Amino acid sequence: xxxxxxxxxxxxxxxxxxxxxxxxxxxxxxxxxxxxxxxxxxxxxxxxxxxxxxxxxxxxxxxxxxxxxxxxxxxxxxxxxxxxxxxxxxxxxxxxxxxxxxxxxxxxxxxxxxxxxxxxxxxxxxxxxxxxxxxxxxxxxxxxxxxxxxxxxxxxxxxxxxxxxxxxxxxxxxxxxxxxxxxxxxxxxxxxxxxxxxxxxxxxxxxxxxxxxxxxxxxxxxxxxxxxxxxxxxxxxxxxxxxxxxxxxxxxxxxxxxxxxxxxxxxxxxxxxxxxxxxxxxxxxxxxxxxxxxxxxxxxxxxxxxxxxxxxxxxxxxxxxxxxxxxxxxxxxxxxxxxxxxxxxxxxxxxxxxxxxxxx
Length: 360
Ligand SMILES: [Ca+2]
Fold this sequence. Notes:
Layout: H1 10-43, E1 55-58, E2 61-65, E3 81-85, E4 88-91, H2 97-107, E5 133-137, E6 156-160, H3 187-196, H4 204-212, E7 275-281, E8 311-315, E9 334-338, E10 346-347, E11 351-353
Parallel strand pairs: 7-10
Antiparallel strand pairs: 1-4, 2-3, 4-11, 5-6, 7-8, 8-9
Bound molecules: calcium ion.
C-alpha cells in the first residue's frame, strides 16, 4: 500500500482506498454492461449496410407467450403457452424513413401504395379505391368507438396519393421525419426491404419474446404498472379517442425512434409508436394449437372481410392506442392487418438468424 504522504494520516488514506474501491465496484458492472451491449450491437453490423439499424442479440430461451388473463374483448391473446426459441438478432429500432430510402435508392423499389390497381384485377372495387394510396387516420368528433363495428371504423380514410414518401397525402413529405418509422407499407413491401437488407421479418413468437426484454409474464414490456411513477412509457394516445389527443407523452402522432426508454434487451419502441408487421399469418385462435418449439403461425390468414388475401400479424400497438378503448400497447396484444393494406399506424423492424454468416 502507498506510504502516507506528509500531512496525510493513515486513516485518511484508508478512507480514500475504501471510496476508490467502492466506486470501482459500483461503476464496473454498468461499464461492463454498456461495453457488452455496444460490442454486441457493433458485431451485428458486420457485413451489413452501415445505413441500416444496429441489431442486438436476443439469447435463446423459453418464455410464456400470450396470457390466461385475457378478457372477452381480447380472447385472441389466450391461452398463455410455453414457447422455446433459438437465439437471433433484432433491429434496435423500427425501420426508419432514412433506412427505407436507402433501400429504394439502391433498388428503385416502388411500394404498393405508390401504384394504381388494375380494374381487371379488382372488378368489384369502387374506382376511387383503385388509385394508389393508403389508409390514414383522421380525427372524428362525436363518435363512441365502442359502438363502431370493426369492419368500417369511421376514423380510417383511404387517401389517394398517401405513401411512405407522402405520409399525410400529397403535399406532405418526410424531409423532417427521416428518423421516424417508415409507414404506409404493405406486408410485401416490408418483406422486400428485409430481403434486400439480408434480414427477415420476425415471427410473432420472436417478436413477443424480444419485446418482453427478459421480464416474465408482465402486462407491459417495462413491467406491470402502466405508468410507473406517473411516467408515460411509450408513444400512445392520451385523451378522448378518436377526437382529441392531448399528447401528454410529448407526441400527437408518430415520434422519432428512440424517443422513449429501451426495454431490457436494448430494443426501443416495442410498445406504441407504430404497430410492427410480423412474418406470420394471423388467426385469432392460433394460440390454442401453437407448437412449443419456434411457432411460425397458421397456414392461412384470418379473412374477416372476405377479401381472399387474409391478414398478417401486427404487434406492439401504436400512437393511436388509448388507455380507455384500445390499450394495445400491452405485451400480449395482437391483431391482424390485411395483407394488401397500408396504413399510417403500422411499420416494422427486422431480425436475423444467429447462424447467418456476416456476409449474408
Ligand atoms: Ca402520443
